[in-house]
Write the C-alpha cells for this entry.
Amino acid sequence: MNIANLTNHFKQVNQNNHLLQAEREQSFERFAELGLPQRSLEDWRYSDLKKIKNLELINETVAEFKVANADKEFSFPVNQLVFKNGMYDQEASTLSDGFKDKVSVTEAQVFSSLGSESEFASNSFYHLNQSFNSQPYKIEVADGAFLKAPIVLTYKYEFSAGSMCHPQVNINVGKNSQVKIIEHHEFNGVHKDSSLINTFTQLNCAQNSLVKMLRVSEFTNSQVFQTGQFVADLWKEAHLDFTSVNLGGAFNRLECEMNHREERAELHVKGLYFAKGDEQVNMLARIFHAKGMGESHQLYKGVLSGKAKSVFDGMIHIAKDAQKVDSSQMNKNLILSDEAEVYTKPQLNINADDVKAAHGATVSQLSDEEIFYLMSRGIAKDKAKSIIQKAFVDEIVLSIGDLNIRNWLKQKVDQL
Amino acid sequence: MLQVKDLHVSVDGVEILKGLSLDVKAGEIHAIMGPNGSGKSTLSKVIAGHPSYEVTSGEVNYDIDFEAKNLLDLEADERAKEGVFLAFQYPTNIPGITNYDFLKTSFNSICTHQGAPELGDEDFTKFINEKVKLVEMDPRFLDRPVNEGFSGGEKKRNEILQMAVLKPRLALLDETDSGLDIDALKIVSQGINSLHNKNNAFVIVTHYQRLLDHIVPDFVHVLADGKIVKTGDKDLALRLEKEGYDWVTKH
C-alpha cells in the first residue's frame, strides 16, 4: 500500500462521489496522517506488516456481476439482503412482506458517527473505509418488532487482484425489538495477488432489544485481505449475542468495539477462527462499560495449523462509576503444528471498585492421552484427532441457540 | 488367546519390563499383582498399544477365532477392533464430546470392522440403556462430556460401561478397583462377572486382594521388577495380602 498512489486514486474516485465529498476528504486526510500501521503501535505489534505494505490497491471495484441463487444458501426462511461488492442489490434480495413492514433499508445520507472514546477515530482502516466506500447503508428495525426469520446480509465479492472494497452498514434495532442477524461475507475466487475487503458495521441495540448476530467470513484459500471494524452500542437492558466466525483467508483482522451506554445491558461475544498455511488472524475486542450493573462475557477460540499466526487482543474497560459489572474474557487456542504461533493478550482496565472481571488464555495441542483413549476404543487416529478438534470448536457452534442457523454454520465448519 | 514371550519394554530409555512372559487362554481370568513400580500398568498399556512405550524385544501374540496376530504390528485402534480392551487406571477426560456420542462412535467403528451393520440412534439408545442398568449408572451421565467432572468411582464405572458396550475378547483392567468404595466395587465386580464367558479372557491388574473377594481368578501372578516371579491360584493372593510382597521376593 503506497500512500502516494492511494492519494491519486482517492482524488479520481472522490470526484465522482455524489455525496459526502467533504467528509471523505477529511477522512482521507486523517488516513494519510495516520499512515499505514506501524510495529510501534501496540495492537499491530504481532501482525505481519510486510504483507500489508506490499498490498498494491489501485483498482476500483464495480458491482456489475450477477448474483445467482443467493437464496439457495439457506434451507430455512430468511430475509436476505444481497450486497455486490458492497452495493445493495434489491433484485437479488428476498424479503418477506412481514419484513418490509418492520424494517427499512435505505442509502444513508450521512456517515455513522463514533462515540468520543472510540479507538476507531485513530484507526487507519476505519478512515480508509470512510474515504472509499461506495455507499453507506442504513437498516432500521422498528420499535417492538419481532422477526422470526433472520435478517441476512449476504456480501458477495467479485473483482480482480489489486482491488479494494469498503462496505459500510449501520443497523439500528429499535426498542423492545427481537432480531437475529447474519452477516455473511463470501469470496469464491482465487487470487494469486492480494486485494482488500475492509468492512465497517455499526449496530445500535436500543433499550430492551434482543439481538443475536452471527458474522461469518468465508474466504477460504483466497489471498484477499480482510479487515473489519464492528461497533455496537447497547442501551438500557439491551441484550446482544455476537458471534464472529472466520473460516480462513490470507489475512483477517476483525476489531470489535462494544459499548455499554446505559445500565443493565448484557453482552456475549464469541469468536471462532481457523488459520492454516501462512494465514494470519487478528481478533481485537474492546468492551467499554460506561455504566454499571451490566454484563459482558467474551470467549474466543482459535484452531491453527501449518505456519499460521493468530493474535487475540482483548480489553475490558470499566468506568469509575460503573459498579456491579460482571465481566469475563477468555481466549483458547488449539495448535495443530509445531510452527503455528499464537499471541494472546487479555487485558483489564478497571476503575470501579465493586465489579467482577475475569480474564484468561490457554494455548494447547491435541493431547496424546486423549488420542490414545479414543484409539483404545477402536477409533482410528485421524478420526480421533478430528473428534477432539471438533469438540473444541463445538463449544462455540453449539452456543448458537437457533437450530437452523447453528446447522448452517456447523456444515461450513465441518467442511474445513 | 494371548501369549506374551520374553517381553522387554522401555519408557524414555528406562527398562520397565525385563523379560515378561504370560499365557492367557480363552475363558480364563488372570490377576496380576505386585508392588508399586513393578511394571503392572506398563504391561496393560503395552498390550493395548500406548505409543509412549517402546518394545525393545519379545513378542505379543494374540489369536482369536483361529487367526493369529502379532499385536505389536497393530495400532491401538486396530487392537481394539480385534477385541482388546483396556480399562484405564486413570480414564482421560474428553471435554466437548458426550459420553453417548463417544460410545456410539466407538461401538460403530468396531461393528464396521467386524462386518456388522452400524446402529442408528434409536437402536443404539435401546442397546446402551440396558448396559447402563448393568453398571447401575445414572443415564444422565450419557449426556455429559466423557469423564468430565466424574468422580473417581464414576469414571471407573464408565470404563466398565464401555467394556459392556464393546464386549471385548481380551479385557485388561488396570487397577479398576482403586478409588472405589465397597458398593462401587461390588457393582464393578458384578459387571465383570456378568461379562465373563468361555470365549473371552480377563487380565486384572491390581495392587490389593479385595477385588478378588468378588472375582475369582484362575491364576494369580506376582510381578516384581519387570518379571513374573511367582504364579499360583487365588490362595496366592490371600497369602500376599497376609505376608506382603516381601514374602515373594524372599521365597
About this structure: The mean pLDDT of chain A is 92. Residues 368-416 of chain A form one domain. The longest strand of chain A covers residues 195-205.
